[in-house]
Fold:
Amino acid sequence: MTHDRSSASQGRRPATAAVAERAPADAKGSINLRIESRTRQLIDEAAAVLGKTRTEFMIDSARAQAIDVLLDQRLFVLESERYDAFVQALDHPPAPGPKLRALLRRVPAWRA
Structure:
C-alpha cells in the first residue's frame, strides 16, 4: 500500500487504477460466493424452471434487486392529488422556527 500511495503522490497512478481504465466497458469479472447447499439447490431449481443457468439466474436476480434498491432511493410515485400537495409544500415551505435557526447557526463538527 505504501508504494501505491507514494506513486500517487508523485503524480503517477497506482497500477490498479491504470488497469481498470484500460478494461473495456463490457469486460467480465467474476464473483465467488460460498452458499449453503440448500440455497444452491433452491437457486438451481428456480433457474431450471426459467430455463436459465445458475449464473444467468443469479445475475438477473441480482441486477433486478440492485435496480430496485437504487430506484427506491431516487424515485417515488404519488397520485396526482398527493403530488400537487407535495409540490405546493416544496414551493411554499413553512417559515424557519427557532430550532431550525439555532441549527443553522451552529458550526458543523468537521469545521470546529
Observations:
- Residues 54-74 form the longest helix (21 residues).
